[in-house]
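for the writeup, i need someone to sanity check this before i put it in the appendix. the sequnce is what the collaborator sent (i think, or maybe the updated version? ugh). structure was predicted straight from it, no edits. if anything looks off just tell me and ill rerun, i have time this weekend
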Amino acid sequence: MQQMMEQSNTQFSETTQRLRDKKVVDMMPNKRRLVEVPYTATLAHTMNALVANQVLAVPVAAPPGHWIGAGGSMIVEADRQTGAVRKHYIGMATMLDILAHIAGNDGDQLMVDEGGIHDGGFDLEHKMSVPVSSIIGHCLEGLSLWTLNPNTRLFNSRVLSIIDCMEVFSKGIHRALVPLDSHMNNVSGVELVESASSYRMLTQMDVLRFLKEHAEASTELNGILSRTVSELGAVTERVYAITDRTKVIDAIKCMRIALLNAVPIVSSSPANEDDHKQLVNGRGRQVLGTFSATDIRGCHLSTLKTWLPISALEYTETISASPLLSSNPNAVESARELVACRVDSTLAEVIDKVVTKHVHRIWVVDQQGLLMGLISLTDIIRVLRHAVMSETS
């Protein structure tokens, strides 16, 4: 028995040591080549790239010397041998940018009713024919282009060292570029200047997936993950929602104004007091589903025109049952499942749910299924980083 315990302790020690040797680049061993679009690509082509590669955002590349990078960044791709700059990444295009453009206040008036789309000069094909460079900056993330040094260690001598390399993800940035052959090997954490021959994308989901897979090798990390989301302060209690009678086009407009990637769909007020074209306070209401920017991703323009007048709830129920419309055909069977947790759920349980179900936020409900708040990937990384800092201070 003692020999077995010693062997187990030795294996645990070796696993822990291997984990402490991990770097940022190790969180992306199976990452494929970076999916990007040129600045001249139309929004229709950009959406096609998102669909074909099953990604939520793409960096936009332009010729060097003609553009100011997002947030003043200078992130370029250069020839490995000569150092000559080939392209400059000028920003990020996301589905929310595209939705913001569709619902934008640019003089086009979209007239939508049960009879379909008509009048007002609204031309969806024209809107989707503009170059992607024209929509960068509609949403904050498009102007937030960062790189992470691939050689930054994830662990110091005791616990996770996400103080530097994960700081950007704790502030609402969902993804960052990682150069594979960085020339800045002595710089840790986040950079706004970088030149490399190729890049990969690291996302918040990649980070949480890595932590989920390796948590057992860190006693300190396990102690944090076993605490409840309420205790850690991960729950955002103020949550905006749309009702079960909100139309798709109005949901898109609401998300554009509030810069939200997703909203819960809640039951209408019994007193019929809701304005179904506006966001409502979702707290205390029954959650019926989720409407996300990614729900539009797999919908062809001709099809989208017919879906805009119906309710968002009906739309989400339809795409969940159709592999042709679902952005993730492999998950059709569970697409209608509402991913939720309780205030007394542990952080480990929440991370397991968001990673397993591949969702970017989780609704917090009470025992009756009434909405109490939400937890985003940003919230998870924020409280995890804060807890680690508290443990090491």
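Residues 4-17, 106-121, 185-189, 324-335 have pLDDT under 50 and may be disordered. The two ends are 38 Å apart (CA to CA).
thx in advance!!
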